[in-house]
């Protein structure tokens, strides 16, 4: 049985991804900073993990043990309210919190679980980015902490793809599109908004269709590549 770790699994896309992987027959470990009802409802191993805390990451990696890990999905993310993330309002605390979860967390968790990934015959690594992290696609400005954290995580996982290619690790950077989650409720009215389950299903198809020739590229949930 293939193994998977999914972060951010108490809500939204993380929860939908965990459910999907369980249906696909994975031995899933689903984690979140909040151990709520949705996380507890999953028919798999669950646990508490604060990806912004090095101590929490170290404890989780120790508890996971030395077994192989076939798929690591870094889904957990945060976004400050719009009014707190403008040029005139963004603060050091907002920047640190946003980067801690969206950028530093995926890097340090992947680092901690890399020995497990390298024991897999077909290791795969996914990270949830966002199109707003595309510098070339930025035509609206704003969202300083969130936008920069996603541009940074793109750079991090592109570097991982280069460093891990000769070890056979496929790295997939994903944009979910507009999704009806608690992260951005103001965009739910958009005609492009979908439920987390649809986003997870489409992203899973993208994730599993990529090989080493595609490692480190940035993909929309609909399957087309996004510019940096």
Largest sheet at a glance?
7 strands, parallel
Number of discrete helical segments = 6
Shape verdict:
globular
Q: What does the radius of gyration come to? A: 16 Å
The averaged pLDDT comes out at 95
Into which percent range does the helicity of residues fall?
A: 25-40%
Strand content: 5-15%
Low-confidence stretches: none
The N- to C-terminal Cα distance equals 35 Å
Overall description:
- With 228 residues, the chain is α/β, with parallel strands linked by helices.
- It has helices spanning 12-23, 37-41, 54-64, 92-117, 144-164, 196-209, and strands at 3-6, 27-32, 45-48, 71-74, 124-128, 170-175, 217-220.
- It has six helices and seven strands; from the N terminus they run βαβαβαβαβαβαβ.
- It has a seven-stranded parallel β-sheet, sandwiched between helices.
- α1 crosses α6, α3 (54-64) runs parallel beside α4 (92-117) and α4 packs parallel to α5 (144-164).
Short description, anyone?
The protein has 228 residues and is an alpha/beta fold. The protein is built from six helices and seven strands, in the order βαβαβαβαβαβαβ.
Descriptors:
single chain, 228 residues, alpha/beta, seven-stranded parallel β-sheet, 6 helices, 39% helix
